[in-house]
Design a protein that fits this description.
The complex is a heterodimer of chains A (112) and B (115). Chain A is an all-beta fold and 112 residues long. Chain A is 0% helix and 52% strand. Chain A contains no helices and 11 strands. In chain A, a hairpin with a 2-residue loop joins strand 5 and strand 6. Chain A is globular. Chain B is mostly beta strands and 115 residues long. The chains are: A mainly beta (112), B mainly beta (115).
Chain lengths: 112, 115
């Protein structure tokens, strides 16, 4: 069953805490992306990676970090520096950069 | 800089009514254009895409969109909506410039179809 999985579905963060969102794909896609979705704001790009061991900042990278050690995995860490982390986070992948992106089911992050 | 504007925040239609959702973009070069749909409780899915060629593109579930370069528009249409079309629709742009690997999304249009 091919696709993109994100875990957990819901995540709670305490003040000052770093949390990591998981994104895994078994589509053999080179490129992976992280977006943040806020009500009425659409999706905004946080980070993207065209290939293993390489990634670039998107429009709203401040307070976030990523790694791309394996082709299948692109975890996103929401650091304590992100002052407004409550949002729906979507991971996507594409065969190569500039090809159609396919999205995972998302993780909703809430702050306690 | 590239941007996408979706004109309507929320559209309410009765079943069998025709649908047109507006999308305008700003970008100085060649573009790839997309419509994505997010059904309640489901993840974002690709509805249709335009890369080049015929400016009238057909997607899944009877949707189509027309790329009008002179108007910088990529409006989504469906002749007769169903209750199951209730969802949020996002228009997105990918520019062709060097290093331009970013999808820029509009803010979305919520469609509510009344049975």
């Amino acid at each position: 069953d091919g696709g993109i999985t994100q875990s957990p579905k819901y995540l709670f963060r305490k003040e000052g805490q770093n949390v990591t969102l998981s994104c895994e794909q078994n589509l053999n896609h080179d490129a992976m992306y992280w977006y943040r979705q806020d009500p009425g704001q659409g999706l905004r790009l946080i980070y993207y990676s065209q290939i293993v061991n390489d990634f670039q900042k998107g429009d709203i990278a401040e307070g976030y970090s990523v790694s791309r050690e394996k082709k299948e995995s692109f975890p996103l860490t929401v650091t304590s520096a992100q002052k407004n982390p409550t949002a729906f986070y979507l991971c996507a992948s594409s065969m190569k950069a500039r090809q159609t992106q396919y999205f995972g089911p998302g993780t909703r992050l809430l702050v306690l | 800089a590239q941007s996408v504007s979706q004109h309507n925040h929320h559209v309410i239609l009765s079943e069998a009514a025709s649908l047109e959702l507006g999308c305008n973009y700003s970008y100085g070069g060649t573009v790839n254009l997309f419509w994505y749909v997010q059904y309640p409780g489901q993840h974002l899915q690709l509805l249709l895409k335009y890369f080049s060629g015929d400016p009238l593109v057909k997607g899944i579930k009877g949707f189509e969109a027309e790329f009008i370069k002179s108007k910088f528009s990529f409006n989504l249409r469906k002749p007769s909506v169903q209750w199951s079309d209730t969802a949020e629709y996002f228009c997105a742009l990918e520019g062709s410039g060097a290093g331009s690997y970013q999808l820029t999304f509009g803010k979305g249009t919520k469609l509510s179809v009344i049975p």
